[in-house]
Design a protein that fits this description.
By secondary structure, this protein is an alpha+beta fold. The protein has two domains: 242 residues, BirA Bifunctional Protein, domain 2; 89 residues, Anticodon-binding domain (Rossmann fold, 3-Layer(aba) Sandwich). It contains 17 helices and 16 strands. Strand 15 and strand 16 form a beta hairpin. The longest helix has 20 residues. It binds adenosine monophosphate (AMP). The site of adenosine monophosphate has 18 residues, from strand 6, strand 10, strand 11 and helix 13.
Length: 417
């Protein structure tokens, strides 16, 4: 019997992790510079939280959630991060502690999707949420932060697509307009879209089925039915982006896959070849009604989530800072405890140190040092022990020198010298 990871859930092996760390570091630094503080919520929540917040007739809730029952509770592996953050915001009455909360998170999400390049069943998202600020200035700041982050990371050709879905009243009006437009074409729609025509026609705009996409050609534009307040919000957002010089494209047909959005919507896409059709790196928007819907006060909110796997696919190599590495190669049993001591002293001096205690030949220990990418190898055998000395091999310069044991740590920590 051979064991394999579950389909669509991937191991991230040690030699790939440096790129993840570099991306995560850039995200954290950027978020913290903008005043966000990290929140960590459980990966499992009560199922009802996601049904209520994401929406019953969304793809995520209808078919992508990993739900299981435990005793009499229905639990779900989180498919996204906003619902949990909003639940925590209400549960801990964060609104009573500060007027505006800026939170970020980073972690695994789970969706039972058909796995393909850039689409997995366990994937990692990093996201930010602002609770308590109605925008539009903070909407612009968030989009500008993302454009800046992607530029800093060096993701090629990122475009910010921006739309507005209006508030509840606008959306009700638009739903009716869209239903009237699509109803005569009901026969041309996919079965799934036809079933959604009454309950949630907006989702049909988002369908990947070519029949639905054809039927939506020429559909009325939501930006034409925004009410006055929604329009003013949207225009002010675009005005702020213009004055910041943040590049964007207005996408009147932008509807995102989750039901909780109000007003501002945005997606950042890249044309990097590796991504193919999974080219949305980041999606977000305002969700002004969610906190109240979850039993909290009427607190407006906005947030985004970006997929770390997709960003890594879009990125070339990331330079991770490299520390000096030194392997310690003891020859013979007596030298091993001295080697362990040297290993500890090297680490205390900030050097990555590896002690090869396998009792193998010098040749094999040097091969291991090479494999680790070590700059130095300290060799110590009985003869060196007697003299209180070590042999220091510089594996980059191909040189060797004998040094007093007491001097070798400072020499290695000083680098190439
Ligand atoms: P969403 O939560 O659906 O708005 O997705 C936000 C971002 O998360 C997307 O733009 C992707 O970058 C990423 N994402 C969503 N679903 C997946 C998935 N199944 N696999 C990998 N990344 C995903």
């Amino acid at each position: 019997m051979s064991y394999r990871a579950v389909k669509g859930m991937n191991d991230i092996l040690p030699d790939e992790v440096a790129r993840w760390h570099a991306l995560e570091r850039a995200f954290r630094e950027t978020a913290e510079l903008h005043g966000y503080a990290e929140i960590r919520t459980p990966v499992v929540e009560g199922t009802e939280l996601f049904v209520r917040s994401i929406g019953e007739t969304t793809d995520v809730v209808e078919k992508e959630m990993y739900t299981f029952s435990h005793h009499s509770e229905s639990l779900t592996l989180r498919p996204e991060g906003t619902a949990g953050a909003a639940r925590a915001y209400v549960e801990h009455k964060a609104h009573a502690k500060e007027p505006v909360s800026r939170w970020y998170y980073l972690g695994p999400m789970f969706r039972a999707e058909r796995p393909q390049r850039g689409r997995y069943r366990q994937f990692y998202q990093a996201g930010c949420e602002i609770f308590g600020d109605p925008g539009p200035a903070c909407d612009a700041e968030m989009i500008d932060m993302l454009v800046g982050l992607f530029r800093r990371l060096g993701v090629a050709d990122v475009v910010a697509n921006i739309g507005s879905i209006g508030g509840a009243a606008t959306r009700d009006r638009y739903r009716a307009v869209l239903r009237d437009f699509l109803a005569p074409k009901a026969g041309e729609l996919s079965d799934h879209a036809r079933a959604r025509l009454d309950a949630n026609p907006l989702r049909i705009l988002d369908s990947k089925d070519p029949r639905d996409q054809a039927a939506c050609q020429g559909a009325p534009n939501i930006l034409d039915v925004l009410d006055e307040a929604d329009r003013a919000h949207f225009e002010a957002l675009l005005g702020h982006l213009d004055s910041l010089g943040t590049p964007y494209v207005v996408d009147p047909l932008l509807v995102r896959g989750l039901d909780y959005y109000t007003r501002t919507l945005f997606e950042l896409k890249s044309s990097a070849g590796e991504l193919g059709s999974q080219n949305t790196l980041c999606g977000g928007g305002r969700y002004d009604d969610m906190i109240r819907g979850l039993g909290g006060p009427a607190v407006p909110a906005i947030g985004f989530a970006m997929g770390l796997e997709r960003i890594l696919l879009a990125l070339g190599p990331i330079d991770a800072p490299k520390r000096t590495t030194c392997s310690v190669a003891p020859m013979g049993a007596r030298a091993v405890s001295k080697a362990l001591e040297l290993g500890r002293a090297l680490r205390e001096a900030g050097v990555v140190a590896d002690v090869d205690g396998r009792g193998n030949s010098l040749k094999s220990m040097l091969r291991r040092a090479d494999g680790l990418g070590a700059r130095f190898c300290i060799v110590l055998g009985d003869a060196e022990l007697e003299r209180g000395a070590v042999q220091l091999k510089d594996l980059a310069q191909h040189t060797q020198e004998e040094l007093p044991m007491a001097a070798v740590v400072a020499r290695v920590a000083g680098g190439a010298g």
